[in-house]
Amino acid sequence: MKQLFFIFFITSFQYAVAQHQNIKISDINSPEEPSICLNYFNPQYIVAGANIRSYYYSNDGGLTWNRNILNSTYGIWGDPCVISDRNGDFYFFHLSDPQEANFLDRIVCQKSTDNGKTWNNGSYMGLNGSKDQDKHWIAVDFSNNYMYATWTQFDIYGSSSESDKSNILFSISKDNGETWSEAVRINELSGDCIDSDNTTEGAVPAVGPNGEIYVTWAFNNKIYFDRSYDRGETWLEHDIEVATQPEGWDYAIPGIYRSNGLPITCCDTSHSAYRGTIYVNWTDQRNGIDNTDVWLAKSTDKGNTWSSPIKVNNDTTKSQQFLTWMTIDQTNGYLYFVFYDRREREHNSLLTDVYMALSKDGGKTFTNFKISESPFLPRNDVFFGDYNNITAYNNVVRPIWTRLNYSDTENGLSIWTALVNTEIIGHEDDNNFLIAEEITYPNPTNNLSFYSFKIRQKTTVSLYLYDSYGRVVKKIIDNKNLGIGKYIEKIDIKTENLTSGLYMYVLTYDNNSKVKKLIVEN
C-alpha cells in the first residue's frame, strides 16, 4: 500500500510541476535584465545573458545551464541582447565601458560559433566622439543573414540642457557581425537627454517577409513607427504615430526600483494567415497609476495605419501588469508575451507573479496563464533590470525573467526560465475549479514557508507536507470542512527541523489534489 501511494505521489508531483516547470538559471553575481534566444536549427541549444557580464548556455532545452563571464577589450556595461542567426551562430550585444575612454561610447557585438560556450572579442557600431550610445536591440533578416541594429544616441546622457538631444540611430552588418555601417539617424523628432518620457528611447527593429525593416520607439507620450524598404538606405520623411502612451513610458510601479513601458516590435514572417502583420507591444497607465496594463497594436498595411490598442492581460482587476516582452513563433504565427503580474494579489500587495499570454489568431484574443511557481516580493532599493525577454520556435517557448528571493543570495537576485508546456495552455485549471490562487512562498526558503490558497466553494480539505521519499512530515490541515475564503498556512522550518532538500505540499479536496514543491536551503 505504501509503495502504491509513493508511486502515485511521485507521479502526481511530476505532473504538477511539469506544467510549466521553473528552472533557476543562476543567482551568481546578482544577475538581472536578462535576454534569451534559442538556436533555430536545434532548439535544444539556448543562450542567455544578464547584466553585466554573465552569459549562460544550455544544451538540453533549458533544463540545465552553464555560466561564464564575457570579456572584451571594448568593455562591457549592460543592456544584454542575445540573438541567433540563420547559421545557428549566437550574438551577444551590449553597451561598452572601455578603460581610459568615454563611458557608453559604442554598441558592442560579440559572436559565438559553438552555441554560447566561447565568444570572440567583438565588433562595434555607433562610435561618435563623446556622444553616449544606449538601449539597443537587433533583428536578423533570415533571407540574407543581414543584421539590423537600432538604439538611442544621447548627446550627453542625463543632461537637462535644451541643446542636448537624443535620437534613434540605425546600423547594418552584411558580413555576419564582422563590421557595421556608419550609424544614421532615422527619427523625425529629437528628444531630450534626461532619460525619461521626453527622451526618444526603446527602439526595437523587426524584419518583414520581403526584407522590410520596421522599428518603433517611445517619445513624448506617444509611440512612433518608421520603416525602410531598401535595407536601411532610406526611411520615412515623417514618422507614423502608432498609439498614444498616457502617463508616458517612464512610470512608477510600487516596490520596483525602476520600470518602463518601452515598446517591442515584431513582424509575422510565417506562412500563417497573419503573414506580414506588424505588432507593437508595450505597457502604460491609461487606466490609472495603480492599474498598469499590457497593450498591443497591429498593422496589416506595412505600418501605414494601426489598430486601436488591444489589452493583452485579460483580468478585470485593478492591478499592475508591467515589463512586457513579445515574440512570434515564426513556424505558426503564434504571439507569446511575458510580463510581471499582480492580478492575484489583494490589498495592494507587492507580491509579484510572472504571467504569459498567447494569441493564436493574430492578436484578436489572448489566453493568459501564470508560469511562476511562486511569487516574489520586490524591494524598491534593489534594481532588477529594465526588461525581461522570451524566445519561441516550433512550439519550444522559453521566457526569462528576474526575481528577488533573499534566501538565494545577499540581495536576492536570480534569473529564471520556464519549460513552457504548449499542449496544456488554456487547460491548466479545468479540473481544479474549487481552488484558486494556490501559491507557496518564499521558495526556496531557510526560515518560514507560507502556503496560500483560496476556496471558491465549501469543501473538505487536507494539506500535508511530504519529503522527497513520500513520507508525511507534517499534517497541516487534516480533513477539515472549510468555507469560502482565503487561507494562509505557515511552517517554521527550524521548529519542524526540516533539513535541506525537496519537499512537497499536497492539497487534497473533492477527489482532486494539487502539489507544490518546496525547496529548503539551510
Describe this structure in words.
This protein is mainly β. It has a domain of 86 residues: Macroglobulin (MG2) domain (Immunoglobulin-like), CATH 2.60.40. It is built from 1 helix and 37 strands.
Descriptive key words:
single chain; 522 residues; mainly beta; Immunoglobulin-like; 4-stranded antiparallel beta sheet; 1 helix; 37 strands; 3% helix; globular
Question: What is the gist of this entry?
Answer:
This protein has one helix and 37 strands.
Average pLDDT over all residues: 91
The level 1 CATH classification of the domain at 435-520 is Mainly Beta
Low-confidence parts: 1-18
CATH architecture of the domain at 435-520: Sandwich
The CATH superfamily name of the domain at 435-520 is Macroglobulin (MG2) domain
Could you say which overall geometry the principal axes of the C-alpha atoms support?
globular
Task: Report, as a whole number of angstroms, the end-to-end distance.
Answer: 33 Å
- Would you give the CATH topology of the domain at 435-520? Immunoglobulin-like
| Helix residue percentage | under 10%
Largest sheet: 4 strands, antiparallel
Secondary structure: number of strands: 37
Radius of gyration: 24 Å
Query: How many individual helices?
Result: 1
Strand order in the sheet with the most strands: 1-30-29-28
- Approximate strand percentage: over 45%
Question: How does the helix and strand content classify structurally?
Answer: mainly beta
